[in-house]
Write a sequence for this structure.
């Protein structure tokens, strides 16, 4: 699939995973910290789901970053 | 409900509505431009739904703004 037409959430998936690894958190630890189900975190990181903005906001807070910075980083890759 | 505990998408709802009105678009026109169902745009603006990040991205593009700028504006209100 050409890069330009890749759905936005696929880029966001990679950004979230990178930030989680940088924070030294497992998917389980991030899920617990963000009060999100751990299977949902896996689905988001694999790009199987476009997270709702509320979930994205919670994940960003749990990662200690601003939600807008995650969104911006993913947007730059589109 | 105290301002601080209001769900993120409720703030985003207001930001999207404000930007749509500023752009002089009806909900129907925005929905068509973004390829999103018009009833979904109404639900988002009324704060009944937390949009997925893909939908938020599409709406931002249809509004002619960066998605991260919508997200940031809503984040400031949290």
């Amino acid at each position: 699939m050409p890069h330009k037409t890749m759905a936005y959430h696929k880029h966001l998936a990679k950004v979230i995973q990178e930030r989680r690894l940088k924070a030294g958190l497992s998917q389980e630890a991030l899920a617990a910290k963000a009060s999100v189900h751990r299977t949902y975190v896996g689905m988001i990181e694999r790009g199987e789901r476009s997270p709702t903005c509320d979930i994205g906001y919670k994940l960003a807070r749990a990662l200690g970053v601003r939600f807008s910075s995650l969104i911006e980083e993913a947007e730059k890759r589109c």
About this structure: The first helix of chain A runs from residue 8 to 22. The radius of gyration of chain A is 12 Å. The helical segments of chain A are 8-22, 27-34, 38-45, 53-63, 67-76. The mean pLDDT of chain A is 94.
